[in-house]
C-alpha cells in the first residue's frame, strides 16, 4: 500500500508549528511600555490631565494568588510560571493578585485602597503615573507619628516602590543579599514630603541624605555621597493630593520621570526586568503589596518590560481629566 507522505509531512509540520506557537506564546508575555505619540508632552507636576489615559489598553496582570499563599515573603506558585503573566500596558491593583507582606494585618476584602499605575516613554525618558485612592492618608493614623531629634515627623511611606533589572538577566537572585550589580536597583517614592508641609507647616529635612519623597535607593550604585545624590536629582517627581482638607484626603497622584542614561544600561533599545509594589500604611499596619507575587528583592522573578513604538499612546487630542481634581 502506497503511503501518502504529504499527509505525514503535513501532520509533522503541524505538530512542530503547534509546539513552536506554544513556546512563542509562552515567551511573548511582557509588560508593554508604549511610546507616547508625537503630540503628547508630559509635564512632571502631579497633574495627570496631560496623560492620554483613554489610549491605554488592558493592564498587565498575574493570575490570582493561590489560596493560602496571599501573606508570605516567599514567591507564590504563579511567580515561577512565565505563562502567569498576561501582556498589558499598565498596572491595576487587585487584592487577589498581589503577594502581601507577611507582617501585614491586611485583608484582601479591604476596599479602601485602589491604584492604577500607568507607564510610557519618549525620546527623553521613562514615565510613571500612580493614581491612588485610600481612605487613610496622613500622620493621624501613621505607625510613626512621633518626632525625631531634629523635631521632624516620622514617616508613613505611602507610595510606590519601583524595581529595575536593566540588563534583563535576573541576576543576582536577591538584591538584598548581593548588591554587586549596578544594573539592578530599587527606588521607592513616598508622599510624605507633601503631607509634612500640609500637616506640620514645615519643610521636611533630608532622610539618610536623600530627599524625603525619595524614600529609598538601593543598588551597587549606593555611595551615600554627592555622586549618588547627583543621580537621584535627575529623577523628576511630583505629588499632588486631592482638594480635601488635611487628614481628610482620600486620593493622591505620583508622577515620576527617569531620564535615559541615568542608570547603567537604562535605554529604550533593550527590554529590562521590572516590578512595582504598592505601599500603604493604614491604622499602624504596613501593607506592602507586591505586583509580581514574589519578594520584591528577588530579581529572578521580575517580569520583562519592553519599550515599544508600534502602537503609540495618544495623538495629542485624547487626553482626559481625572475627576478628583
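-> sequence recovered:
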Amino acid at each position: 500500500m502506497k503511503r501518502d507522505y504529504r499527509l505525514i509531512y503535513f501532520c509533522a509540520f503541524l505538530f512542530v508549528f503547534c509546539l513552536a506557537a506554544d513556546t512563542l506564546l509562552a515567551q511573548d508575555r511582557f509588560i508593554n511600555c508604549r511610546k507616547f505619540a508625537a503630540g503628547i508632552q508630559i509635564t512632571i507636576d502631579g497633574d495627570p490631565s496631560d496623560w492620554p489615559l483613554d489610549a491605554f489598553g488592558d493592564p498587565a496582570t498575574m493570575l490570582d494568588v493561590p489560596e493560602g499563599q496571599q501573606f508570605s515573603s516567599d514567591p507564590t506558585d504563579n511567580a515561577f510560571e512565565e505563562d502567569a503573566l498576561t501582556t498589558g500596558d499598565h498596572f491595576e491593583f487587585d487584592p487577589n493578585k498581589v503577594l502581601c507582606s507577611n507582617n501585614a494585618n491586611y485583608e484582601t476584602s479591604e476596599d479602601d485602597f485602589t491604584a492604577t499605575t500607568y507607564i510610557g516613554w519618549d525620546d527623553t525618558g521613562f514615565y510613571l503615573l500612580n493614581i491612588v485612592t485610600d481612605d487613610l492618608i496622613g500622620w493621624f493614623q501613621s505607625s510613626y507619628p512621633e518626632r525625631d531629634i531634629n523635631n521632624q515627623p516620622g514617616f508613613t511611606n505611602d507610595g510606590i516602590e519601583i524595581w529595575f533589572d536593566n540588563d534583563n538577566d535576573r541576576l543576582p537572585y536577591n538584591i538584598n543579599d548581593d548588591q554587586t550589580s549596578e544594573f539592578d536597583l530599587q527606588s521607592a517614592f513616598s508622599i510624605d514630603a507633601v503631607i509634612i508641609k500640609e500637616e506640620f507647616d514645615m519643610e521636611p529635612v533630608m532622610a539618610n541624605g536623600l530627599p524625603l519623597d525619595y524614600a529609598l535607593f538601593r543598588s551597587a550604585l549606593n555611595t551615600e555621597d554627592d555622586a549618588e545624590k547627583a543621580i537621584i536629582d535627575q529623577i523628576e517627581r511630583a505629588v499632588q493630593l486631592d482638594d480635601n482638607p488635611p487628614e481628610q484626603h482620600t486620593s493622591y497622584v505620583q508622577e515620576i520621570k527617569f531620564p535615559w542614561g541615568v542608570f547603567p544600561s537604562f535605554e529604550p533599545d533593550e527590554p529590562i526586568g521590572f516590578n512595582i509594589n504598592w505601599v500603604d500604611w493604614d491604622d499602624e499596619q504596613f501593607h506592602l503589596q507586591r505586583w509580581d507575587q514574589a519578594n520584591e528583592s528577588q530579581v529572578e522573578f521580575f517580569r520583562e518590560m519592553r519599550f515599544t513604538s508600534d502602537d503609540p499612546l495618544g495623538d495629542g487630542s485624547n487626553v482626559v481629566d481625572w475627576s478628583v481634581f
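Residues 16-26 have pLDDT under 50 and may be disordered.
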